[in-house]
Predict the 3D structure of the following.
Amino acid sequence: MKLHSALPVLTLLLVAGSALAQPVYRNVDKTGKVTFSDQPPSANAPAAPARDAGGGSTGVGGAALPFELRQVVQRYPVTIYTGDECGPCNAGRSLLITRGVPFDERSVKTDADVAALERLSSQKSVPMLKIGSHQISGFSDAEWSQYLDAAGYPKSTQLPPGYRNGPAQPLVALQPAAAASPAAAAPSAPAPAADVPPPSGPTPSNPAGIKF
């Protein structure tokens, strides 16, 4: 009697087990919305756009940075200020690219750019490197490398394939001549970068105790 009464229960368990064993597919539509279904995604379904899990730090083409490098970039963003026909500017840019340091580039070409650079750094010459809130005037391979080391940037590139820094932008944004009002046309200094907490004294990666 007990054996016969257990057969329906066993049958139900086997049916439930087979249902649970069915695969579940994760579908992502073209807007990035995620749904789950027992139906596989269509082979013709458009690929979802690439997204950075950290909410930023993507280069041209949407290639996301590795987590550790993204953390360094958020703490100590790098900006290089350059000019035309400037050998030291080219050398500084090459150092950053070779080392795999993500950076923004600001070109100093017009009188307004020069005035803005002077307000920003109290000097008119380029190149200038900014790491966090620290500014380095002129190019020195040893000095730039020392500060990049102290900030935590890797010595060799860890950028993902396809990552590219954005093109250089003018230090002072150009205003349309017809739409610009006298107040809007006046160049203004770029907003200073937010202060970042300095490293707490000498560390194995920063034996000189460099502060930013």
Summary: Residues 67-171 form a domain with the Glutaredoxin fold (CATH 3.40.30.10). DSSP finds six helices and seven strands in the chain.
